[in-house]
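Task: sequence design from structure.
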């Protein structure tokens, strides 16, 4: 990546293009673009011609750089729950919409304003990396609550209640289940969440579909890159047909993601409301 950066601009898409003397502005490169966005650099690929030029004040750029630096140095729990992709996208949106009035450059304040449980993410994480890795491998990266891909080591009995860091109290969760369970005692969460089994089955099916669609999308993008690079010509015959296919496939991915999100929200609302009811019953017991 460093090869493409001069001053504050991500200049080009690849060395091959440069060698062919192809204009960077003719190509899109999502990885370079995302890198540029999250570091508030200027990206001079195709995206620039379709969107607004990215211009930030010096202060906003410095703040963004500071936040990216803090993110890189954040505790493992932060990096596990907020992947670089999510972080980059979210930071970019924030820069676009709020860069005029952006008040702070503190990572904790920023993450809190995005709705993340900052106290949990930054504290109570006395687990070392070996333990985390052991738990991930033990459960083969499968969330023990919903069966989808999981990467977050979770205290079954919340550490805030028990302070229990024993292996037997640790399990693996996806970011969604981890957040949903929050500080709920394990037995309560399991009892309430078992009724969402059909929703979780749908979520697992959608995850599988998305995985296949994304792989297909990558293949198509690879084909397009190979075609246009070989010809050193973004208008090479067949390129537009491939672009159309990529667009259609991307729409399917987006649609499938939207479906998942709806089901996740449904499950979240159900669990939260049942938990509220359970706490209420506990409070009024014996009245
Ligand atoms: Zn899960």
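Answer:
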């Amino acid at each position: 990546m460093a090869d493409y950066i001069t001053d504050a601009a991500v200049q080009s898409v690849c060395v091959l293009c440069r060698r062919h003397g192809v204009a960077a502005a003719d190509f899109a490169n999502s990885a370079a673009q995302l890198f540029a966005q999250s570091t508030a650099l200027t990206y001079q690929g195709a995206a620039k011609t379709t969107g607004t030029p990215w211009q930030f004040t010096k202060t906003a750029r410095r703040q963004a750089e500071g936040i990216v630096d803090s993110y890189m140095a954040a505790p493992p729990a932060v990096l596990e729950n907020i992947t670089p992709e999510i972080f980059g996208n979210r930071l970019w949106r924030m820069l676009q919409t709020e860069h005029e009035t952006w008040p702070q450059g503190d990572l904790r304040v920023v993450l809190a304003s995005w709705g993340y449980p900052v106290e949990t993410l930054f504290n109570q994480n006395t687990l070392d990396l070996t333990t985390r890795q052991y738990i991930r491998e033990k459960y083969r990266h499968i969330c023990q609550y919903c069966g989808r891909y999981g990467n977050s080591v979770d205290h079954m009995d919340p550490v805030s209640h028990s302070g229990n860091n024993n292996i037997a109290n640790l399990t693996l969760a996806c970011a969604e289940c981890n957040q949903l369970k929050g500080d709920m005692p394990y037995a309560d969460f399991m009892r309430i969440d078992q009724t969402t089994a059909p929703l979780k089955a749908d979520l697992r099916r959608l995850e599988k579909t998305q995985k296949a669609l994304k792989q297909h999308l990558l293949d198509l993008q690879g084909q397009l890159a190979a075609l246009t690079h070989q010809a050193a010509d973004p208008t090479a015959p067949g390129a537009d047909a491939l672009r159309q296919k990529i667009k259609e496939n991307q729409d399917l991915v987006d649609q499938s993601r939207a479906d998942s999100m709806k089901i996740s929200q449904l499950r979240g609302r159900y669990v939260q409301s049942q938990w509220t009811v359970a706490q209420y019953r506990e409070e009024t017991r014996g009245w």
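Residues 1-7, 47-51 have pLDDT under 50 and may be disordered.
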